[in-house]
Amino acid sequence: MVKIPVVRKVLEANDAIAEELRELFAEKGLAVLNIVGSPGAGKTALIEKTLQRVGERMRIGVIEGDLATSLDAERIASHGVPVVQINTGGYCHLDAAMIKKALTSLNISGRSLLLIENVGNLVCPAAFDLGEALKVVISSVPEGDDKPVKYPSMFSRVGAVVLNKIDLLQHVRFDVEAFRRGLQRINADAPLIELSCETGQGLDAWLAWLERQVSA
Ligand SMILES: Nc1nc2c(ncn2[C@@H]2O[C@H](COP(=O)(O)OP(=O)(O)O)[C@@H](O)[C@H]2O)c(=O)[nH]1
Ligand SMILES: [Mg+2]
Question: Which atom of ligand 1 is nearest to the CA of 199?
Answer without folding.
Answer: 27
